[in-house]
Amino acid sequence: MRGRVRRITNEAAANIHPQTFQDLQDDYNAWVGECAREYKGILRAEEQVKRDPALSPADRQMRLYELEEKKRMCQARFYEQQQQWRADYWALAERRGIPGGGGGNGVFAKLFPKRGESDAAAAPEQAAQCAAEQALPPQPIPGIEPEEPRCDVAPIEQTRQTSQVVVGENGRTVRIFDHPQRIAPDLPYSQGNNTYRRNNTCALASSAVWQQLAGGKNKEQQFVGYASTHCSADGKPICDETGSVYPENIPALWRRFGMPATCDKSKNVERIAQAVESGRAVLVGVNAGRLWSADNPERASVRKHIGSGRANHAISVISCERDELTGTVVAVYINDTGRNLPRDACRRVPIEDFLRAFMVPNGVAVISDKPVW
């Protein structure tokens, strides 16, 4: 089905194919049906595994884990391909000169907000929550000498970075924001570099990466010091004794370091890509085990890092790669301090692997309000 849609999209880009809104909606409905059948098939397989008396407990657990992986990948593919449906819809609407894309019965206009439009109106409770998170600045913890950083970073109005068009994997022409491999040698790839003996500092170390990219001098030491000596609006320390930070506390933390930001819980990869391309700082919560299992030539054990399957690790998204013809995001470039591996300073991650790690419970993005580099 997607082969047909891809062909339509390419021809539409050349303003050739006389496609109608009804054609597009029929294709979309058929595709959704295929996806639903695939997902239901996985659910049926799960029930069969649970009832199979021939399986040992260990084999049953392994089979269920494999099926859970298939469900995650099915969901990730659905989301990725849905972005292409949105591109198809808006290309058709613009080609026909329909303001607001109100073609047919407007079903697609409601399903696919136009690229670049704010989604705050669709989730007012999220906007209200983010505003509340930033309303009260962190306060020093009583009885502890607070560490106050020197703020040497300020937002800018327009990114200073550029993009480049190259021939990527499989001969595909892609556009890559900034020059990720050029900056890789200068970026850190480890965490726990502080005098507070806190090692689970992925979010704080990643925050320091963005300070460096923005031209600031604050490092992990300053972020850990501030988070260890200040409390959030609920009266608890911003980071716990291990250095872990709740995503909801990061916007207020970033504001103190000159990077006002917002928590984004929509799991909207297109929104993340647009933020990256505009030069804004982006930190995302992912499941470490799922992320690392896709890049594991050392054959290290990752099962313990999967845990409950929720987001348990923070990384920075510093660049993204788009198919030059369709505009679809095909990969992201991340900075990951969790494994102390030099290649993680700036590693290309195919979008399927990124979605597999990001589309999990508690998968949250923190995005600066304005460009920082």
Provide a brief overview of the structure.
The chain is 43% helix and 14% strand. It has 13 helices and ten strands. It has helices at residues 2-13, 21-51, 57-95, 107-111, 124-135, 180-183, 202-213, 220-229, 250-256, 269-277, 288-293, 303-306, 351-358, and strands at residues 139-140, 163-167, 173-177, 230-231, 261-264, 280-286, 313-323, 329-335, 347-350, 365-371.
Q: Which descriptors apply to this entry?
A:
373 residues, 10 strands, single chain, two-stranded antiparallel sheet, 13 helices, alpha+beta, eight-stranded antiparallel β-sheet
Model description:
The chain has 373 residues and is an alpha+beta fold. It is built from 13 helices and 10 strands. It has helices at 2-13, 21-51, 57-95, 107-111, 124-135, 180-183, 202-213, 220-229, 250-256, 269-277, 288-293, 303-306, 351-358; strands at residues 139-140, 163-167, 173-177, 230-231, 261-264, 280-286, 313-323, 329-335, 347-350, 365-371. The strands form 2 sheets. Strands 2, 3, 5, 6, 7, 8, 9 and 10 form an 8-stranded antiparallel beta sheet that branches. It has a two-stranded antiparallel ribbon with strand order 1-4. A hairpin with a 5-residue loop joins strand 7 and strand 8. Helix 7 (202-213) packs across helix 8. The chain is globular. The model is unreliable at 1-18, 100-105 and 115-135 (pLDDT under 50).
> Percentage of helical residues?
40-55%
Order of helices and strands: HHHHHEEEHHHEHEHEHHEEEHE
Structural class based on helices, strands and sheet pairing: alpha+beta
Tell how many strands the DSSP assignment holds.
Answer: 10
Number of continuous helical runs: 13
Low-pLDDT segments:
1-18, 100-105, 115-135
Share of residues in strands: 5-15%
Taking the sheet with the most strands, its summary is: 8 strands, antiparallel
Average pLDDT number = 83
